[in-house]
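During the reporting period the student researcher (J.K.) took over the structure-prediction task from the postdoctoral fellow and processed the backlog of single-chain submissions. One of the processed entries is reproduced below for the supervisory committee.
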Amino acid sequence: MTASYRWVILALTIVAFMQTHVHRLAFAPLIPTFVADMGLGYTAAGTIQTAYFWTYMTAQLPIGLATDRWGARRVMLTCFVILIVGGAWFAASASYAASLVARMLVGLGAAAVWVPGMRLMAEWFPAAERGRATGMMSAGGGIGGTVGLVLVPWLATFWGWRLAYGVLVVPAVLTFVLIAVFLRGGEATTAAAVRPGALRRVLASHALWPFNLSVIFSYGAYFSFLTFLPAYLVKSLGFGATQAGLVTGLITAGTIISWPAAGVLSDRLGRRKALFLASQGVSVLVPLAFAFVAPQVGMPATMAIAFISGLLVGGLILPFVMIVELFPREDAATASGVANSACFVGGIVLPIVFGRIVDVTGSFTIAFVVAAALQAIAFVFALGVKEATPVALQR
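J.K. obtained the following structure tokens:
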């Protein structure tokens, strides 16, 4: 394979990561309609959203180990089959139990993109381009999340929530085909022999744990906030479902720009931590802006708040680049799997907690204040995150 093939690799990971975020976030703008149709409360809706993260998180470490041993192509193709089945089942589910299990399958299927993708980035891109490549792959998630938050509720106004969600299976099938046809050399480039004890070495690293503790709170609060933001905009601010999806989608639309931009800037600086800390600080303010400013300023200003928020949180992607750079290449997927698992520890609990807060108090504002507090805790832990030295980045 020639060096230019890395851009094919990058394009495939971008498209695949789009599918992960489409399914992760498309349920959020459907929650008001979903709970009315199924006769459920917000705690139940939060649990269904969380079910995605149960299997996604649990699978990260096994997927990291499997990717290091058997290659990205096999792992990604296997999991995309599971994603397709789970997405179709969720759209057809007629009970709480069925929708819960279906979302678990969706989470399991979506789990095998980020970790194999990070391994591919580490192998195909030199350190001087790695931040840009990771940011571009992450932008695929922003595109997918925006589509899920904006297009799906719009389609639901015409087709109903089931068909609007069900059509998301089509791009997942097309992505499976693209990976099968174009991801050549995956086994040869990603299935290099793994030194025994990779997991032990990764878990024993002191550099990993400040990052893990930071993202537990940061990503758990972020995904919980995005889960209930559309319902807040509908129930508390009187927006229509399509308008609420659009406003929420503007946050992820901002990340389409900010994630690659943060990667490029950190590559040029040769440092990543300062940008990460700046974005983590902004993350404290975002839920507070929606809780206290948005009710006073109307929809156009709320849209501006959403888009600016997305533009300023791009640095949150950089620790994942830092993790890859801190570990030898043969352990990269295992390290990424452990780190990515930590992201979703908060995700398996906090959406339920937020839903319970709303059910008991009737207030989304209280839940958003809790989100801000959790982001502040994440910032404290982020101060201890380590990054590779400029010399180490040249390896």
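The committee noted the following: Confidence is low (pLDDT under 50) at residues 186-194, 390-395.
J.K. will present the remaining backlog at the next meeting.
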